[in-house]
Amino acid sequence: MIQFKRLDHVLLCIPEGATASAREFYSNVLGLTEIPGNHPAGAIWFQVADIQLHLREESGSSYSKRHPAFEVANLDEAREALAAQGIDIEYSSEIDGRQRFFFRDPFDNRIELLQFSA
What we know:
Layout lengths: L3 E11 L4 H11 L3 E3 L8 E5 L2 E7 L9 E6 L2 H10 L5 E2 L6 E7 L5 E7 L2
C-alpha cells in the first residue's frame, strides 16, 4: 500500500519561448515567490502556500509531461507495488534532496511519487 503524505508540486507546461512571460505573470501578476536554482529542463519554480508550482517549456504533444507530484512515506515500497502490477516506472534525476519516479495511469496521465532524502 502506498502511504501518501501530501501534494508536493504541480508541473504546468508553457509554450516554447515563453519562460520570460511566464516568470512575469507568475511573479508580478500572481505575486508568487520564485524559488531560485538550476532546475531540471530549464524549469522555473514558484512557492504557492505549502506546495510548489513548476513551469517548463514543452512543445505541443499529446504525451505531456504535465503532472502532480505526491510525497509518500515509502517510495521503495510504492515502486515495488506498482511494478508488481505491471506499471512501467520512469526514473528521473534527484531534485533538492528528493528521490522520485514517474508512472502513467491507464489514460496516459503522468504521476510523480517522491520522498525526501534523510
